[in-house]
Design goal:
Strand content: 5-15%
Shape: elongated
Radius of gyration: 33 Å
Distance between the termini: 102 Å
Helix content: 55-70%
Largest sheet: 5 strands, mixed
Structural class: alpha+beta
Strand order of the largest sheet: 1-3-2-4-5
Order of helices and strands: HHHEEHEHHHHHEEH
């Protein structure tokens, strides 16, 4: 009996040793494989780095391809949003409009009164509008640069009730220096607005709701900053000059 137990014990010990060996051997093999793979990756990384240093134009080309791809994706998103939100873009009853109400091309202008690029683009819009009597424009206030931008947007929207939206819009766009509430109201008074009435009208919740709709619309279009435009069915992010805007209007007419 004792001999049988000893043999059985030896067998178990031997078996345990075999099991342990079997358990550790794959681990060692895996560890060796990981080490080999790491060495290969490091070598490959070094080769790639050396190649890119020797041929930096490859990086430029890659970035250009990426930018074109991203631009195409943004354009696809914008085109889809223009189709789906056409009524909100063109016919929101609370959005101020200007130019020819029956115009054959509509420019939708997303702007912030504190944005220097918006001020630059405003000159292009003003120039093109003055030379082309068949353009309609829709103003979409997008106050993304803080509380002062919001106050300016509310003032411009509230000025519609006194028939002074365009006058205040242009004055704010052409104002130099830092804006604050006092300066905005001073500019409003300078274009003939009743400031006490304007301040009361600015509290109307419909204007906050309109700004919220504009922000949601900008999000749908993929707008990441101001200014931004929709000309006909073309989405145009960023500041543009008069010649570019004229061409966009001409393209819209062809369509």
């Amino acid at each position: 009996m004792r001999t049988t137990l000893l043999v059985l014990g030896a067998a178990l010990i031997g078996g345990g040793a075999l099991i342990a060996a079997a358990a550790t051997t794959p681990s060692r093999i895996a560890s060796s494989a990981v080490t080999s793979e790491s060495v290969e990756k490091a070598a490959l990384g070094k080769e790639i780095r050396e190649y890119l240093i020797a041929n930096p134009e490859v990086l430029v080309e890659a970035m250009q391809v990426l930018e074109r791809k991203q631009d195409g994706q943004r354009e696809a998103v914008a085109q889809k949003a223009i189709r789906e939100h056409k009524a909100e873009l063109l016919n929101d009853p609370e959005s101020p409009t200007g130019g020819n109400a029956g115009g054959d091309v509509t420019i939708v202008d997303f702007n912030d009164y504190q944005c220097p690029y918006c001020k630059r683009a405003h000159q292009a819009v003003k120039s093109v509008m003055s030379a082309d009597s068949k353009i309609r424009i829709v103003y979409k206030d997008l106050p993304i640069l803080g509380e002062t931008s919001r106050i300016a947007a509310l003032a411009a929207l509230a000025a519609v009730a006194q028939g002074k939206h365009l006058a205040l819009h242009e004055a704010l766009m052409e104002a130099s220096g830092k804006l604050d509430r006092a300066r905005i109201l001073e500019i409003a008074a300078s274009v003939g607005l009743d400031v006490a009435r304007l301040e009361k009208d600015m509290e109307d919740p419909k204007f906050k709701q309109l700004i919220d709709r504009n922000l949601a619309l900008a999000g749908a279009l993929g707008i990441r900053g101001t200014p931004a435009f929709v000309v006909g069915d073309q989405f145009v992010p960023g500041a543009i000059d008069a010649d570019t805007l004229k061409q966009l209007v001409a393209n819209a007419r062809k369509r």
